[in-house]
Design a protein that fits this description.
- With 249 residues, this protein is of the alpha/beta class.
- A 9-stranded mixed sheet has the order 9-8-7-10-6-1-4-5-11, with helices on both faces. A two-stranded antiparallel sheet has the order 2-3.
- α2 packs across α5 and α3 packs across α4.
- The protein binds adenosine monophosphate.
Length: 249
């Protein structure tokens, strides 16, 4: 059984992002880029399914600039078998990514499709759900446990106030939550081996998708600076300020 994993190239989670002076986006000059953390969890889960014998081949796909090859190679070093870069320098919206992934699903026929629950750059949380709709497949979103058994997969989902377990017929979409697993670090020999694994380059038009037409970011702003706090001398003063200044009691 094949697994397809979608990985997005994003600004590393530890980097403090800077907004460009003209406020059209985030300044990516000399900024460390990484696999979106939730996608890394998706890769790890696919590798664990392969180690358990439930999956035989893992294909990693990324839609983005040529440099996104680095993130595909990182996923190959973690244990994926081959990669597909769908190369574009255009801004790509969630529906376009979902349509491209649908094109890859049609060609590769994976049974398990793993995505992150959201990309930490645009926080959109849409691609997995859209892909499930385009495929007419079941979806287990926000997964904290995944068990593949025969032609089905059981996904335990993190929902408000608890856990819900759903059973999905394959092929199915799974989007990963933080507690699904702890991704391993790539061992040096595996980083070397990953350089030799196959990586195909395609373009969105290979899947009938036109990019750069539907989405344009027009304004990006940093959060307003927080004002310094005030120290009060007594409980009475605090109550007075809460009542008359903040007007919250
Ligand atoms: P989003 O819906 O944009 O928050 O992203 C959810 C998940 O969809 C990500 O964690 C990835 O698994 C996948 N995804 C989103 N954008 C891309 C992209 N450009 N290339 C590959 N996968 C993507």
């Amino acid at each position: 059984m094949k697994a397809l994993v979608a990985v997005k190239r994003v600004v590393d989670a530890n980097v403090k992002v800077r907004v460009k002076a003209d406020k059209t986006g985030v300044d990516l000059t000399n900024v460390k880029m990484s696999i979106n953390p939730f996608c890394e969890i998706a890769v790890e889960e696919a590798v664990r399914l392969k180690e358990k014998g439930a999956v035989t081949e893992i294909i990693v796909v990324s839609v983005g600039p040529q440099a996104a090859q680095e993130q595909i190679r990182s996923a190959l070093a973690l244990g994926a078998d081959r990669g597909i870069l769908v190369q574009t320098d255009d801004e790509v919206g969630a529906l376009e990514v979902a349509k491209i992934l649908k094109g890859i699903v049609d060609q590769e026929k994976p049974e398990v499709i793993l995505l992150g629950k959201q990309a930490i750059d645009d926080d959109s949380n849409q691609v997995g759900q859209m892909l499930a709709a385009l495929m007419g497949a079941g979806q287990g979103t926000f997964a904290s446990e995944v068990k593949v058994d025969g032609g089905k997969v059981q996904v335990t989902r993190e929902v408000d106030g608890g856990l819900q377990t759903v059973e999905l017929a394959l092929p199915a979409i799974i989007t990963t939550d933080l507690r699904l697993n702890e991704p391993r670090y790539a061992a040096l020999p595996n980083i070397m081996k990953a350089r030799k694994k196959p990586l195909d380059t395609k373009s969105p038009s290979d899947y009938g998708v036109a990019t750069g037409t539907k989405l344009k970011t027009i304004l990006v702003e940093s959060p307003a600076d927080r004002k310094a706090g005030v120290q009060v001398k007594s409980v009475d003063e605090l109550v007075e300020k809460l009542k008359n200044e903040a007007k919250v009691i």
